[in-house]
Amino acid sequence: MKISNNQVCNLLGIKYPIFQGGMAWVSDSDLAAAVSNAGGLGIIAAGNAPKEWLVEEIRKTKMLTDKAFAVNIMLLSPYVEDIIDAIIEENIKIVVTGAGNPGKYFKKLNENGIKIIPVVPSVAQAIRMERNEGVVALIAEGAEAGGHIGVTNTMSLIPQIVDAVKIPVIAAGGIADGRGMAASFCLGASGVQVGTRFLVAEECNVSDSYKEKVLNAKDTSTMVTGISTGHPVRVIKNKFAKKFKKMEDMKSSLEELENFSRGSLRKAVVDGDVDNGSIMAGQIAGLVKKRESCKSIIEDLIRTYERTVTSIYG
User: Fold this and answer.
1) Could you give phi then psi for residue 160, rounded to 5 degrees?
2) Of the candidates 80, 138, 82, 85, which has an alpha carbon nearest to the alpha carbon of residue 111?
């Protein structure tokens, strides 16, 4: 199974079919540029940030790399219209969409020659997204992922989506090394998205205490909160997550839950408050054991992928 110059690489102009997850408050210009320079697809996460922040990050990224990179649009953002304007004005040619239906923006993105890659959690949504002009690939994200998740696990989700659509599928959720890459390709994926492992990259600007929580995680260290709200989120267990879950069990109102959780991700990522902040990370966190550069991470992914494939096929 050829890992470089495959369909996704040729489509996007990248060396390896490895996407860096678009993680709000995490995926900035430093991380995106480092991943792109190492041969993957770096992604800036617009999150809930205003247009001015995104423009600055895009311009910083262009100063740090001449490689392809993308912007992740969170469709629930109050600034989504401005974010799309910024993407067009700054001549971004690849976008990843999540947390909502991008349908109303397809026409505008298509008119500007922008390749659209939606994140999908189900076969039904994958089929709906594929029908739209400009959608060139899909990121199928399983429930093992960190942050906002669907309900189907990656191993079950990927082959079903691959069988249902004709465009390339990028596997996401629970992938942190070459073994996960090999498994994803065996299931029919044309690429992978990695999030949690890049949290501890040297170029990732999250707080040291956040990184230490990831590095010290075990296989049972994550939990899912927010199920009652309709927006489940996978996080590392801490005081905040346990209190949120307790509030859910006590049938707290959506308003109470929103008030309690407001700003919780920023607390952990920026302020380093890993007791009262939300530490989003995937189930694969227990496999992440050291800080290293994005270049080193991607080289290790490729090396262990090749070793795994060789051990299977000879």
Assistant:
1) -70, -40
2) 85
Taking Cα atoms as reference points, which of 142, 129, 198 lies closest to residue 168?
129
Query: Which of 288, 23, 185 has its CA nearest to residue 42?
Result: 23
Backbone φ/ψ region at 174: left (φ over 0), alpha (ψ -120 to 50), beta: left
Element (H, E) at 83: helix 80-89
169-172/138-141 β-pairing: parallel
Whether residue 252 is predicted with pLDDT greater than 90 in this model: the reply is: no
Q: Yes or no: say if 144 and 154 are a contact pair by the CB < 8 Å rule.
A: yes
Q: Where are the alpha helices (DSSP H) in the chain?
A: 7-12, 29-37, 51-64, 80-89, 106-111, 123-130, 154-164, 178-186, 208-215, 239-249, 254-261, 264-266, 294-313
Per-residue pLDDT tens over the stretch 37-72? 999 999 999 888 899 999 999 999 999 999 999 999
Q: With beta carbons less than 8 A apart as the criterion, state whether 261 and 278 touch.
A: yes
CB 29 within 8 A of CB 202: no
Measured distance CA(78)–CA(240) in Å, rounded: 25
Rounded CA-CA distance 5/3 in Å is 7
Gap between the Cα atoms of 22 and 173, Å rounded: 13
How far does Cα 167 stand from its chain's mean position? 19
What pTM, to 2 d.p., does this model score?
0.91
